[in-house]
Amino acid sequence: MRTLIKHIQLLCQIEETTTQKNIVVGKNMSKVPSLSDSWILIEDELIHSFGKMSEINDNQYDTEINGSGRLVLPAWCDSHTHLVFAAPREQEFEDRIKGLSYEEIAHRGGGILNSAQKLNMMDETELYNQSLQRLHEVIAQGTGAIEIKSGYGLNLEAELKMLRVIRKLKEQTPVAIKASFLAAHAYPLEYKNNKKAYVKLIIDQMLPKVAEEQLADYMDVFCEDGFFSVQDTEQLLEAAYKYGLKPKIHANQLHYSGGVQVGVKHNAISVDHLECVGDAEIESLLSGNTIPTLLPAAAFFLGIQYQPARKIIDAGLPVCLASDYNPGSCPSGNIPLLLSIACTQLKMTPEEVINAVTINGAAAMELQKTHGTIAIGKKANLIITRPMNNLAYIPYNFGNNPVERMMLNGKMV
Ligand code: NIG
Ligand code: FE
User: Is 394 helix (H, G, I), strand (E, B) or coil?
Assistant: First the structure.
């Protein structure tokens, strides 16, 4: 099956060489290689070839799509979400408007524990159906690859339930999905005075089971003052490595907690959130290969300080952007809106934000060989936009969906 999209206004984020790039860093983030007045040919689920209309080959194809006046780009790669959850938390949203902080709500037994209580009560089928609906919603906004975390179970049975739902989403949908095991998201109430015992439970009972069923790609920890300490984090990451689970961790959201440094030390794929980043964190990031992943839509929704994206990029580092879709700090997986927030609040340029959610998002899920750019042989996961002239229009036209049609694995969805 071959599909040709022709007369494309701008084919964005292309790679013409065979030596494919893995990640875009520093100054290079301001370049998005593109071809105007172009075509792309898709064969089965892969990108077969592309070029300028003036040099179109005499290609055979089954279906033709007219891309005139539209951009075609690689689908977003959203490398940090908690898309599997049981219920929204709008009451806490109102409490925060009235002055309570995210941490105060968590200390009262709200927040993550509130979500865990609801999730424990919900059966797997219902949890799957709700999550599938959310996944369809973000696909319609351009997402084609996504990481999803557990972490609202907080006991063996419910963590496995979440991870099985993620696995089923992976099996039943055309989206590329990676799973992270995040039992170290909060201490269940019954472990409030015996935190070490919960860490031990994760290591001795949960991790072996998760590994045995091959339910996770990564190990995540909410490393933060009041949640999991640097010492807990180290212990958890070391245990996870024995089962082949690499780290991707929550770090430096609320405090200068040492999360960035511990992530880099343990070769984390990424350290995520990063509201609190100073010179020591930058220095640490420069010493390793861990990807700084910023979640500014969560900072927007919580009304906390934004991540210092300029400082990170200007230091020559990569930046990845992800949604953090979750019922507490970011009840939206809307990537186009995230891009607008990153431009207006973090002062990233339109080209930088596009790199941050395509190639760099793919790298933060180790999918850069197959996703994140338009390159021959990569998955045909493509966004065809509504009529527009250039990339900057996407974050500029905030609150509106730039996506007209989505192609995943070579099929229109
Ligand atoms: O990434 N910071 C920790 N975890 C999530 C929020 C979880 C929740 O509030 O339900 C986050 O923001
Ligand atoms: Fe998160």
Answer: helix
For the chain, give every domain's residue range. Answer: 2-74+372-412, 77-363
Instruction: State whether the beta carbon of 111 lies less than 6 angstroms from ligand 1.
Output: yes
Output the pTM of the full model: 0.97
Q: Which residue has the tokens 């440094």?
A: 261
Name the burial class of residue 137, with classes exposed (0-12), middle (13-18) and buried (19+) by CB atoms within 10 angstroms of its CB. middle
Give the model confidence (pLDDT) of 86-137 as tens digits. 999 999 999 999 999 988 998 888 999 999 999 999 999 999 999 999 999 9
Pairing of strands 246-251, 270-273: parallel
Hey, what CATH topology would domain 77-363 get? TIM Barrel (3.20.20)
Ligand 1 site, residue 373, Cβ cutoff 6 A: no
Assigned CATH class of 2-74+372-412: mainly beta
Gap from CA of 124 to ligand 1 centroid (Å)? 22
